[in-house]
């Protein structure tokens, strides 16, 4: 008797009949689950959307999926690059369609679950209110997401795909077809002496260029900001204005002016060095001296931004910290090392990481100064080429699009890994005290 009483006291579980049937019908055809749930307008809307998508894009998807697999079969008739682009767009459209399809199934299951609990399905007016209330942020974000997909994601996927083909000057459609070659481009880049030497030289100089140029320009900006921030310094506004002037001049103008100043034969830099008895320096013909000149130019172009950034951070540091340090007998260097530097790095860490990433891909300085020259025997890259300028030359000078895409892929992976590591290590995005 006790057992029977316990069984009668247990609440009855809601049925799962409606939710399962609605989800199954929506899996078969979009909108059928909503029609089963008596949401007629919503159901017919999903149904019309599915029919319109299939009618409007069936031929495009069919040709695109065939093209991305085969890259064409007949020269002059099939354009491999266009087929590849169409195939990538087809894949993106399929992903969007599947997402909308999953939304249809989820909606039918959710309303079916309400019916299983004995609740009435939302009316058309209630659905409209729910969309405009809870779904309002998604309605605003969706157009930007679609635009971002085709403006940013599509070029990235296209570049990644080109890295696994043989697309170059000798395999250029429509006269020639492009074929999938797998990892042959990457293997050839590290096996061929010409490409191996070029890649090692360019990659090592890119790392040195990024670290040295960014670190020195930030260090110079920080030191100048600290000096100007001192209490006894007068005309602070004048000094800040004068030192920020290099940032106000367009960078390409400054780079072209410096290119003329460092000219081996007629440049004023060598003329001045001759007048003081030092002699000429091969700024444009010796790779080592050209790299030194590039670093000097980048430091000149980059330190004003660091100066303005650090000056703003220094304004926010409380003077009580320095007064307490003076009472403890701290020297000027100790105050800089224990207070100024940690707080400045804490506040500027995200921006500093972006500066490293910017210089890693800084095409302007390298290419406008001397186009990555001088030439180096046994290499396909110049003595001052970084990865981005080498990619530019491979694309527009030698038309080796496959190798350019492969180098771009390697470059992007290195940059993403380093940036991710730095962002994870820095505490700039964490709400915690720096000084413990």
From TrEMBL:
Pfam family of the protein (one): BPD_transp_1
Domain ABC transmembrane type-1: 203-422
Keywords associated with the record: Cell membrane, Membrane, Sugar transport, Transmembrane, Transmembrane helix, Transport
CDD domains xrefs: TM_PBP2 (cd06261)
Main subcellular location of this protein, as a coarse class: membrane
Primary gene name: malC
Superkingdom as given in the UniProt entry: Bacteria
Localisation per UniProt entry: Cell membrane
Family membership: Belongs to the binding-protein-dependent transport system permease family.
Protein name in UniProt: Arabinogalactan ABC transporter permease
Recorded topology in the membrane: Multi-pass membrane protein
Transmembrane portions of the chain: 44-69, 81-105, 138-164, 202-226, 238-262, 292-318, 339-358, 401-421
InterPro entries membership: MalF_N, MetI-like, MetI-like_sf
